[in-house]
Write a structure and sequence with these properties.
337 residues, alpha/beta, pyruvate-formate lyase- activating enzyme, OB fold (Dihydrolipoamide Acetyltransferase, E2P), globular
Length: 337
């Protein structure tokens, strides 16, 4: 099937089951898969996919070759889907794509226009922007996030590295000086902005001096949330045949060192919340009776911190919880009346 006619997947599977054979379907051009994107959703949050494909062609990534070029879903379709989610009880819309910042470039729109239209939807919910490419995060976007009441002051900006030489080999399109200016700009406009990022360690050509620059940058504590990935060698990507491949054991050690450095910062920062009452969105029941799992506004679902709350609370409701204990990636709290 490929990725040009996703909407035909169900039909193709039915034909395969009935006819007990193989099926090859290669459309001549991309067939939109979103016209009937109005499925209901049950839960506190929902992922709203705003585009598919990617035009960045980072040297380590195979996604542009698998998913094809960037294709935005029209605003009216997304607004309709978001309305269905909200009416179904969704309290948080999480906007995702390979790169959310270039949304609309292929259809005459932009991410700011989409954020404003989603913000205008009636209902009690919040909006979170994920996967914002560093090149697309500008002053206008940051000010829009701060301005719109339903959009959370949260940005997920996958930097992937800090050293300029490694960033160039990755084909990321920016350097360490750009990152410094970007971080300064964000916090000058929104001092309370929560930042998430991801880094890749062990990329071909990453020697000790390159990793040390990344390590020193992480220890500055700009990021509330941070993910570290060990470089994975993908065939048919430029990075696959690059020289100076890093031994897996070295890359693994660097991953552990970076995670430990950030965990130390997180533990200290999280400990400051002990004894305080925070607002949490209840996501699910916990395995232990009498407990639920929730998140603060500063935390995205599935990847950031959680709060284990003792109390009879309903999924999908905002509640107040007093934090009684903190760890590097989660909290323990009790529901406040």
């Amino acid at each position: 099937l490929g990725n040009a006619d996703i909407g035909s997947a169900a039909k193709a599977l039915r034909e395969i089951i009935v006819n007990s054979g193989k099926k090859v379907h290669i459309p001549e051009s991309f067939v939109p898969w979103y016209p009937n994107l109005t499925v209901e959703h049950k839960g506190s949050y929902a992922f709203l996919k705003i585009a598919d494909g990617c035009d960045n062609f980072c040297s380590y990534c195979v996604l542009p070759y698998i998913k094809g070029r960037y294709r935005s879903i029209p605003e009216d379709v997304l607004v309709k889907q978001a309305e269905f989610f909200v009416k179904s009880g969704t309290r948080e819309l999480v906007l995702i794509a390979q790169d959310t910042t270039v949304y609309g470039k292929d259809i005459g729109g932009d991410i700011i226009s989409l954020l404003r239209k989603l913000n205008d939807i009636e209902g009690d919910f919040i909006i979170r922007l994920m996967y914002a490419h560093p090149r697309g995060v500008d002053e206008k976007l940051v000010r829009t996030i701060v301005e719109l009441p339903k959009v959370v002051n949260y940005l997920d900006i996958p930097l992937q590295h800090y050293d300029s030489q490694i960033l160039s080999r990755m084909n990321r399109g920016y350097d360490s000086e750009y990152i410094d200016r970007l971080v300064e700009m964000i916090f000058s406009i929104a001092p309370d902005m929560t930042l998430r990022t991801t880094f890749i360690v062990g990329f071909p050509g990453e020697f000790d001096e390159h990793f040390e620059k990344l390590y020193d940058f992480v220890t500055k504590g700009y990021f509330t949330h941070l993910g570290v990935f060990q470089y994975s060698r993908e065939e048919n990507t430029p990075a696959y045949s690059m020289d100076a491949q890093v031994p897996p054991d070295v890359a693994s050690l660097r991953k552990e060192q970076l995670e430990m450095a950030h965990d130390s910062i997180s533990c200290e920062r999280n400990n400051e919340l002990v004894g305080k009452v925070v607002d949490v969105l209840v996501d699910s029941p916990a395995l232990r009776d009498g407990f639920v799992i929730g998140r603060m506004r500063q935390d995205a679902p599935q990847v950031d911190r959680i709060v284990r709350i003792k109390g009879e609370l309903k999924v999908g409701e905002w509640a107040k919880a007093r934090i009684i204990r903190s760890f590097s990636h989660e909290f323990l709290g009790v529901a406040e009346e």
